[in-house]
Specification:
59% of the residues lie in helices and 7% in strands. It is built from seven helices and two strands, in the order H-H-H-H-H-E-E-H-H. Helix 2 packs antiparallel against helix 5 and helix 4 (56-63) crosses helix 5. It is rod-shaped, with a radius of gyration of 25 Å. The mean pLDDT is 86.
């Protein structure tokens, strides 16, 4: 839609990075998920190695391997997705921020976005008073 109305404008998309601490937690969760699935599939009782009694949920995980591995996989992926999701939708025009979903809490409507871009194009074409001095 933007490319049709403004063919001379280069449009690029990029991911807005989440905070570093959230990235690290997501990575630790990924490794934990993999280790947990390996323990369930290989029938490794981590509680025996720690000298603790085996809890009932671990017995259930061991007896229902397919269901438990799928549950671990999907639950961890949902949490990881929430950790790395920023919900950002940032628009810049000539390296000048013109819209931020993080600040406004919403995505601009197409007519609103067209008006913003038109205003910035008009400002770029008209020299300012300081350029004529």
């Amino acid at each position: 839609m933007l490319q049709d109305k403004y063919p001379h404008i280069s449009i690029m998309g990029d991911n807005y990075p989440p905070p570093t601490w959230r990235q690290y937690i997501a990575q630790v969760l990924t490794l934990s998920k993999i280790l947990l699935v390996i323990c369930v599939v290989a029938n490794i009782n981590i509680f025996e190695h720690l000298g603790q009694p085996t809890p009932a949920y671990w017995t259930w995980l061991s007896t229902n391997k397919i269901y438990s591995c799928l549950m671990i996989f999907f639950m961890c992926n949902a949490i990881e997705g929430q950790l790395i999701s920023t919900g950002a939708f940032e628009i810049q025009f000539n390296d000048v921020p013109v819209w931020s979903k993080l600040e406004t809490g919403r995505i601009p409507q197409p007519p609103e976005l067209f008006q913003i871009i038109d205003n910035h194009i008009r400002l770029d074409q008209n020299p300012s008073w300081s350029d004529s001095i």
